[in-house]
Amino acid sequence: MPSPRSSRERRGGSGGRLEFLSLSQRGPAAPDSPSRRREPAGAAAAPLPEEDCMKLNPSFLGIALSSLLAIDLWASKRLGVCAGEGSAWGSARPLMKVIEVSGHGIPWLLGTFYGLCQSDSSAAREVLLNLLFALLLDLVMVAVVKGLVRRPRPTHNKMDMFVTISVDKYSFPSGHATRAALVCRFVLRHLVLAVPLRVLVVLWALIVSVSRVMLGRHNMTDVLFGLLLGYALYGVVEHCWLSPATAPALFALWSH
Ligand SMILES: CC(C)=CCC/C(C)=C/COP(=O)(O)O
User: Fold this and answer.
1) Domain coordinates in residue numbering, the chain
2) Contact 185, 127 (CB under 8 A)
3) Is 218 a catalytic residue?
4) Is 176 marked active-site?
5) How far is CA 67 from CA 5, 51, 64, 74, in A?
6) Assembly ipTM
7) Ligand 1: does its nearest atom lie under 6 Å from the Cβ of 136?
8) Of residues 160, 180, 167, the one with CA closest to residue 102
9) Minimal CA–CA distance to 148: which of 73, 209, 225?
């Protein structure tokens, strides 16, 4: 059995103490701490081994995070009422899967590309080209975060999704939620719609997001983070807005 110190060294550490300071590490016990009080009189005040300190004194942040994750897993499992045909709301699963397709990347990419080919006004071309850019940026960002975080999908999820890529075996963040938030912000900002339609767009984004947990595809934190990421990505799109002035070559490609 390797000693804790040798495992630290094998993981590339310099042997210095700063390596594990991020969440749980504490300095030496305070003079009046219980661990000091238990020492026999006259014994040398040897500090506790680092790993024992981490177990006995987990940081507040560590406890808060583990509790949040435990609540997330528990609540998401309970809300996964359409996770299978035999689940509490199993009969609604086909409807949930239709909602899933409405937020999938393929129809959005194909639809936007088709619209771009058909568009006959420069304003429409500009908006659709930026929507295409937004959808591609979203796919890349979600793939990068999923690949970095590598959080597995909930155990009750049935992996029967329409067209997935390799990182879609991971669940954090929800790609459907990022797309729903991004498209919702984009559409509300760049399409002139009557109020009832604007409400429908927001409802669609919310339903797509909630359906991810109901289908058992995601935990709640995957969806919440996905919504935040999609919302933030719209800011990036607006900041890098493509126009005939900033990207003339791109626009020349699409002008008829
Ligand atoms: C293949 C293409 C173009 C997109 C993949 C879309 C997809 C399957 C995303 C996964 O969404 P969740 O993370 O919400 O399950």
Assistant:
1) 4-58, 90-254
2) no
3) yes
4) yes
5) 29, 21, 5, 11
6) 0.96
7) no
8) 180
9) 225
